[in-house]
Design goal:
Shape: elongated
Oligomer: single chain
Distance between the termini: 51 Å
Structural class: alpha/beta
Number of helices: 12
CATH superfamily of the largest domain: Ribonuclease Z/Hydroxyacylglutathione hydrolase-like
Helix content: 25-40%
CATH architecture of the largest domain: 4-Layer Sandwich
CATH class of the largest domain: Alpha Beta
Strand content: 15-25%
């Protein structure tokens, strides 16, 4: 869609990706995603901040040429070396061979590993400065957001923070790149999903980075995914802090898989009983909903009911998959009630308990194990589990 002026002598030269259906090969992106790159033109020097996915190099190079000649680029600043942001580096260097590649020392090492060492490098540390003339760029180390090499770049003169993947969101921009051009709340669901899927494992580092920028006047927030925030630059920062804080919403998730409807029937019983008690409930069939859409709910739920049928004597694979995602994403300890349906292989409850305890979760009693038909005796046990779940939430 071409380049866009952000503010005086700062330009967006990024691209939208509507080609990929999975981000990182894992996460569905039904609304696409943007790869944001920026040019800062000083009176003496020019900096390009981040690049884009290599697939979009042609469009990206064209956007750059709308603003500057490649021979005028002095610095290529890489806040984050993941290939969706560094992938076009060699294409830029081929046209701007005198440009210095700027990153943390670890970032420089990553760049050499990915793209070879045929470039002049400049490693920066916390507080280092590059003066472009009228635009002074200050570097802020922000490790583990969400790779260890990450830095932020802050333009002191305009109050613009280039924050890399931190505070980003899924969703292509479709020609409108500023928060005041959009109904920004429309992005909130995709932002929370991006946070849960990509950043949540490193929540403690979100808090540390936010503390480092707390006293910096941010007039414009430029991330590498999603809108540019010039009306409410603190909007995504506040949301990320909320989601990183460890404060749960007063809600119950019911997560289940079902082959022939029996486990689904038990899940529906739990849902109806809890809703009848005025509890905020969200129910998901793990056979039909990708974990990408479950994780945003899981990270801030107070309690979870997890149900599985037996499958060849073990846990149903969609349930195992969800538990593994919770482990990888370091989901905080939660209270789990578990239920299962079986015809044979009745140690499934023990298997579920073991996997949940292994990742730090609390398993509530009683557990509900149903053989075939969901009986009145089973329902009495389910009611007691509901009672104990409500107590655990208080």
């Amino acid at each position: 869609m071409g380049s866009v002026k952000v503010c005086e002598e700062i330009f967006w030269v990024g691209v939208d990706d509507r080609r990929d259906i999975l981000f990182e090969g894992l996460w569905p992106i039904p609304y696409g995603v943007s790869y944001n790159s920026y040019i800062v033109k000083g009176s003496e020097k020019v900096a390009l901040i981040d690049t884009v996915d290599e697939f979009y190099s042609k469009e990206f190079l064209s956007n750059i040429e709308e603003i500057v000649k490649f021979s005028e680029i002095d610095y290529i600043i890489l806040n984050h070396l993941e290939p969706d942001h560094s992938g076009a580096l060699n294409e830029v260097l081929e046209k701007a061979p005198r440009a210095k590649v700027v990153s943390s020392q670890m970032g420089i090492n990553f760049a050499k590993a990915y793209y070879g060492g045929g470039f002049e490098a400049m490693a920066v540390k916390d507080g280092d400065i590059i003066d472009l003339g009228g635009h002074t760029l200050k570097f802020i180390t922000a490790p583990w957001l969400h790779w260890p090499e990450t830095i932020f770049t802050y333009d002191i003169n305009s109050g613009t923070l280039f924050s890399g993947d931190a505070f980003g969101t899924f969703g292509a921009l479709n020609g409108k790149i500023f928060d005041d051009e959009l109904n920004i709340e429309d992005f909130e669901g995709e932002m929370k999903r991006y946070f849960a899927d990509i950043v949540s494992h490193y929540s403690q580092f979100v808090l540390k980075a936010a503390e480092k920028i707390r006293n910096i006047p941010i007039k414009i927030l430029c991330t590498t995914h999603g809108p540019i925030y010039r009306k409410k630059p603190d909007y995504p920062i506040k949301l990320y802090l909320k989601w990183s804080s460890g404060v749960d919403e007063n809600k119950v998730l019911i997560l289940y898989g079902s082959m022939y409807g029996h486990t689904a029937g038990i899940a529906k019983y739990f849902e109806d009983r809890l809703r009848g008690m005025g509890v905020n409930v969200k129910l998901f069939d793990l056979c039909r909903v990708h974990p990408s859409f479950i994780l945003p709910e899981l990270i801030d739920s107070k309690a979870i009911l997890l149900g599985s049928p037996t499958y060849e004597g073990t846990i149903y694979p969609p349930i195992t998959n969800l538990i593994e995602y919770a482990r990888i994403k370091n989901v905080r300890p939660k209270s789990f009630g578990i239920f299962a349906n079986y015809s044979w292989g009745s140690n499934i409850i023990e298997q579920l308990k073991s996997k949940l305890v292994e990742i730090g979760m609390r398993v509530l009693e009683p557990t509900v194990l149903v053989k075939g038909r969901f009986t009145e005796e089973d329902k009495s046990k389910a009611d007691l589990l509901i009672e104990n779940l409500i107590k655990a939430m208080s």
